[in-house]
Amino acid sequence: MAQVDKVFYQLTISISKALNPAEFPLKVKHARAAIIGTFHSGGAHSFWAIALRQPLQENRITAWKFCHLLHKVLREGHPLSCQQSLRQRAMLTELGKLWGHLKDGYGSCIKQYTKLLVTKLEFHDRNPRFPGSMVLKKGELEQIGGNDINYYFHLAVEMFDYLDEIIALQDAVFKSLTTFHVSSMTSAGQCRVAPLIPCIQDSSPLYDFLVRIMFKLHSNLPAELLTGHRERFRTAFGQLSKFYDESRSLQYFMTLITVPQLPPNAPNFSSQVDFGEYQAPVVVIPEPEPDEFVDNLVDMTVQQQRPPEVKLEPPQPAIDFEKLIIERDELIRHLQLEVDRLGRSVKSCNVENRELQSRFEEQMATMHAELSQAQDEMELLKMQKDELELKAETAPTLEQKAIAEEERAKASEEKFLKLKTMYGQIRDEHVKLLRTHGEVSKQLATSTKMVSEVTKEKEDIRCKLEDLEHQQARVEENLQQSSNVAKQENEELQTKYKELQEKYEDMEANKSAEIAELRITCENLSKSIEEAKNAHDELQSTHESLSGEKDTLSADLEAQKANHNEEIANLHQEIEQLKGEVAKTSKETGKLQEDLERQIVSLQSDKNGLDEKLVDVQKMLEEREKSFEVLQCKYDEEVVKGNELKSELEGKISQVEEEREILKSEKENLCQEVEGLRSELQTKCEELQTTQTSLESELGEAKGEVEVLKSNLEEMKAKHELLVQNYDRLMVDRSDRECELQDLLHQQTELEEKHVATLETIGNLEAALRDAQIHGEVIVRSLLEACVKSSEGLATRAVSEDEFSGGAAGSAAYFGLLAEELVDMLTKLGLGHEQYVADNASVEPFARKVIMAGHLMATVQMQGAIVCSSTSDIEYGEQIAEELKDWYNKHHIALFESLLSRSDTTSTGNVLNATKTHLQAIAERVGALSKKLDPTENIGDMFEEELLGMDKAIEEAAKRIEEMLSESRASDSGVKLEVNEKILDACTSLMRAIRVLVQKSRLVQGEIVAVGKGGATAKEFYKRNHQWTEGLISAAKSVAQGANFLVVAANKAVSGDAKHQLDLVVAAQEIAASTTQLVVASRVKAPRGSSNLAALGAASKNVTQSTATVVATAKDCTKRLEDSQDLDLEKLTVHQAKRMEMELKVRVLELEQALESERLLLAAFRRKNYQSEVDGAKI
To answer: Residue 459: which residues within 8 A CB-CB, separation 6 or more?
Structure first.
């Protein structure tokens, strides 16, 4: 077994053991083997090839362990594991959706884990510089982000998303433990909890990166812009702290991982002090014991034998006094900026506190309004209860009439309407007062904000380091005075509020007493009126009205019962509404709800009492019916007595009527008095409410001012502490700087003495330098003249070469001329070097020859490379180019180094001779290269011939398909005819689309030639772009061959059986691929925005659609032919069916074997064809 197969086999065994369906946690050795396998295979391809064959969709434990194993491979595996696993995102998503429908705990966990893995892959795809383990070295995060704040902003969002998925996974795992009562010390619990270890390892560096990025963002961006980031960080901080605390409490994690400890509070990103005190959380994984059968994969001997690097300390630079002073000024400026920034942060905190205060006040106002509304509704319920009690106490007897009941009902309705209108007016006024209070509070807040800003700006301007103590004393005095004044005003307001509250209570008591007296008088009047009416009705009752009274009384009782039931139902509805409203209020309305429930119970008891009284009334009616018979007997006696009493009653009736009129007048007077009293009470209530609202507003303003003063006092204290600290720090720095200054002064004296000595030496050196400079100027002037003249000669030479060569540049002849000229120049250079060595005065002609030789050598190398790259024999040209490169690299450095030496002239001559001989050999090979034939001479004619052949093949194919269609219609019928017509029609439409495509490609090619040829001919353009032309020729040949193959396949499909339909599919796909090659070759050089190119793209889409139609038609026709040839299996015997089954199996095996052999043959044919194409391209 080969080494690679053995490694793959071991990796397969390890992964299959790791993903076994037993509910146990993933073993470390199997995971380690999978991780090592990724390093052996150079990526995650082998891992995925094995993992995808596991039963991930059949077993939930296997899927869960797969997610855990994949997480560890992405973290600790080969660096290319994340990149190569990115293509499996769709599989992970589908796996999560599949198991997400399972409700046993593992389903939701697998779904969340796949989301986490997909998020991790996408994160590493967008940020490839982050490793899978999320561990970066110190300063590497700043190198990744640089100074791009936008990158840090988006990186923080991506890290928040990554951290949210980790938190969601751990939440699902812990929920499954609590829901199914699984312990972490059991195998089932450990299987669920084990994947949280890599989650902790990922979340710890993510938290560290987020903290550093947030501090960086807050130091460069305004705080309002980062509100969303701060909110997400707070929520993630709380959830992550909870996750770490729950993980730390699990006994299973005690020996496997050390869970990091987060601080109790989130860091303050606007303070650099918190950033200086910040410590990154550390996750510690104990090293596992090494297995006996695993050898060392990496040889560490080289690293152990490497000697330690010795770090050389740089020399200490000299101290600069001016730099120290500048640093001190910068420190002072930095402290001033820090003070200003702290002031701005305090302002923002004040604004936030005021906004919170206004919100709380609005909430309190709404709560008070709801409470007052509930109290008013409770008073209404109490009044209705009192009325019901009065009605129950003064229940009508059989003698009372409906008139009294109607009057009472009207009176109660009027009272209710009046109370309702009063309540609406009071509520509207209360709402208006609340709105005005809100507007006044907002105006007050804005004014106080402006005042505080102005004062703080003045204080910031005055803040200087020299006046800190004086300002602090003044501020403390002002604060003490303002606090005393505020306390006095607060005490005065409290006393005023208490006095007004006592007055309000007294008025409330008086009001309640007056209302009670009025109620008593009204009740007495109603009783007296009812007694008078009863007396009058009793006097007018006669024997004739007894029978009518029975009917009317029964109807009245039913009406009263219905009215009582309606009132009780209305009361129930109102009570339910009150319950709904009271339930929305806070704890303060709980007592009111208990009172409502008590009243509901009392009303229910009243209802029961009324029902009992109705029963009693019915009993009384039965008794009256019995007594009616007795009265019927006494009727005769009463008639006699009635005649006697009639005269007496008439006199009494007249007296009663007079008394009744008197009582009516008294009643009207009393009603007027009652209305006057009510109006007075309403005015007094309104006055009390206005005074109460004004007092509440004044009290709220006073409280707000007190709180503002308190907050200002605290801010000033904090400022004072900071300033004192800064002052102490500056004093310490000042003392240190003074000590350093003295040391620097001492060093300065020593340096001045050394400076005087060095000045003397410099004067001596300058005198010697002047003498050498005078002699050197003469030589430099001569060299300058030589360089100018040689440069002028090179410029004139370049112009003359350009005029001479024209289109000959890059040809072998031009290279030969340059090589001969370079050989002559090298011989002259040898002579000039000998003269220069003999006499220094001949430096000028020697410099000219050196410059000219260097220029010619560079020109020869460049022209030779052009000639070799433009030849058709690529291998031979590459050999010559490599040899030319070796000549240039080998000789030009050695030549110029030898020219610099003035002692040895023989070595210079040898170098010159070697350079010339090597150059002459290269020139001969380049001349031989030019003699070879160029196969691109007639490439334009070949291209035109191939296009004509392609057009001819397409026309002949279309004609042949039409002939086959006519022959099929003449010879076939039924299903066969229908199938042939569909196939040939689809082929005809495909040939039409190909014909249009060829026409459009002709137009695009003509446009390309017209744009690119310039002043040359079309054949020269094709020759110059011979590789592109060869591609077009190959595409044209493929289209012609595909058209012929399509005709043959269509003929077979029409004349043969269903198996030949596949030939038609292959032919259609082949010709579509050939046309695609033609379109791509045309699109390479087409100008952008060309209308012909757009038409060519549309024609290519039509060819693709026609090809798909041919394929679909062929498959459909094959199915129809097979359906028409199906056997009737019901008519076969058992023996025949068994025999046919055996024959079909044999046929299937033969076809499979034939398919395998054909595939091998196709692969060999493609290799052979590719090799022949490559050889043809080389020829």
So the answer is: 471, 475
Are 844 and 941 spatial neighbours (Cβ–Cβ below 8 Å)?
Answer: no
User: Rounded to whole angstroms, how far apart are CA atoms 268 and 814?
Assistant: 76
Mark residue 916 as left, alpha or beta (left: phi above 0; alpha: psi -120 to 50; beta: remaining): alpha
Question: For residue 1123, what pLDDT is reported?
Answer: 64
The type of residue at 391 is K
Encoded tokens for 112: 């969340």
| SS3 annotation, 545-597 | HHHHHHHHHHHHHHHHHHHHHHHHHHHHHHHHHHHHHHHHCCHHHHHHHHHHH
Q: Which residues contact 895 (CB under 8 A, 6 or more apart)?
A: 853, 911, 912, 915
CA 1042 to chain centre: 51
- Name, in order, each residue with C-beta under 8 angstroms of 505's C-beta and a sequence gap of 6 or more: none
Q: For 902-936, give the DSSP string.
A: SS-HHHHHHHHHHHHHHHHHHHHHHHHHHHS--TT
Q: Tokens 């400022």 belong to which residue?
A: 719
Least confident among 514-523, 669-678, 820-829: 514-523
**SS3 (DSSP) at 284:** strand
CA dist., res. 160 & res. 230, Å (int): 11
> 1143: burial class by Cβ within 10 Å (0-12, 13-18, 19+)?
exposed
Distance between alpha carbon 620 and the CA centroid of its chain, in Å? Answer: 82
Read off φ and ψ for residue 104, nearest 5 degrees.
-100, 10
Q: Which two tokens stand for residue 265?
A: 């509070």
Integer Cα distance of 295 and 33 in angstroms? 12
pLDDT (mean) for 1050-1077: 71
pTM higher than the cut 0.70:
no
Whether the predicted pLDDT of 1131 surpasses 50 = yes
Residues 66-104: tens digit of each pLDDT:
999 999 999 999 999 999 999 999 999 999 999 988 877
CA distance 21 to 442: 67
Which CA distances in Å does 113 have to 64, 101, 167, 986? Answer: 8, 14, 11, 50
Q: What is the dihedral of CA 518, 519, 521, 527, to 10 degrees?
A: 160
Q: DSSP 3-state assignment of 258? A: strand
> Given its phi and psi angles, is residue 23 left (phi above 0), alpha (psi -120 to 50 degrees) or beta?
beta
Contact 955/1096 with Cβ under 8 angstroms?
Answer: no
**Angle 92-93-95 from CA coordinates, rounded to 5°:** 65
- Evaluate whether 391 touches 408 at the Cβ level (below 8 Å): yes
Q: Per the structure block, which two tokens stand in for 259?
A: 């869970």
Collapsing DSSP to helix, strand or coil, 297 comes out as: coil
Domain boundaries, the chain: 1-106, 809-929, 939-1126, 1130-1179
The answer to whether the CB of 908 falls within 8 A of the CB of 830 is: yes
> Which residues fall within 8 angstroms of residue 894, CB to CB, at 6 or more apart?
911
Q: Domain 939-1126 is in which class?
A: mainly alpha
Token pair in block for residue 1048: 């043959």
Largest CA distance in the chain: 186
**Residue 1050 buriedness (CB in 10 A; 0-12 / 13-18 / 19+):** buried
Residue 486 CA to residue 478 CA, distance in Å, equals 12
Query: Do the beta carbons of residue 1070 and residue 1045 sit within 8 Å?
Result: yes
Structural contact between residues 434 and 369, judged by C-beta atoms closer than 8 angstroms: yes
Residue 227 burial (C-beta neighbours within 10 Å; 0-12, 13-18, 19+)? exposed
Question: 416-422: long-range contacts at Cβ-Cβ below 8 A with a sequence spacing of 24 or more?
Answer: 416/380, 416/384, 419/380, 419/383, 422/682
Strand, coil or helix: 295: coil
CATH match of 809-929 with 1.20.120: yes
CA gap 92, 99 in Å, rounded: 11
Count the alpha carbons within 13 Å of 992 in the hemisphere toward its beta carbon: 11
3-state helix, strand and coil shares in percent for the chain, rounded to the nearest 5: 85, 0, 15
